[in-house]
Amino acid sequence: MRAAIALCVVLLAASASAYGPETNYVIHCQGCHLADGAETPGKVPGLADQVARFLGTPDGRAYLGRVPGVANAPLSDAELATLLNWTLRRFDAAHVPSDFAPYGAEEIGALRRDPLVDVTRERTRILEAAH
Ligand code: HEC
Predict the structure, then answer these.
(1) Distance 75 CA to ligand 1 centre (A)
(2) Torsion, Cα of 98, 38, 21, 125 (10° steps)
(3) pLDDT tens, 23-79?
């Protein structure tokens, strides 16, 4: 009985500390990407009206899970997958392909453990291939 109560307390504490994607965006992303996903020229690329364009190629899809701000967020793989899927629809629904398969925890886990070495070069290469 005592063990059962202790388990309930642990489970309650765990669920209370887990936020949904809107809140996780505010906590972990908004400081750089702003509330509306706007660009900070020369520093942070805009998410608004462009981020989902990366979904057009397999490397681009992988890039979104490997880019440092995403890969290094202190969130579980499942929370991060939910946050990234939310980010794509929140800021660039128009460019999400109709057959888009949402990121899952396993995919995100594999991508974030394969970090980009030269982010700028990889980003440029992907955007050139997409055009
Ligand atoms: C410290 C600032 C910072 C934080 C915090 C941050 N990012 Fe970023 N993000 C960037 C920069 C700068 C880039 C451009 C690639 C690079 O140089 O890392 C980027 C690129 C991206 C991209 C790819 C878009 C592109 O055009 O390259 C996505 C998607 C993204 N961030 C989402 C997120 C999400 C989601 C979070 C929160 C979990 C987050 N970022 C947190 C600065 C940040």
Answers:
(1) 15
(2) 60
(3) 999 999 999 999 999 999 999 999 999 999 999 999 999 999 999 999 999 999 999
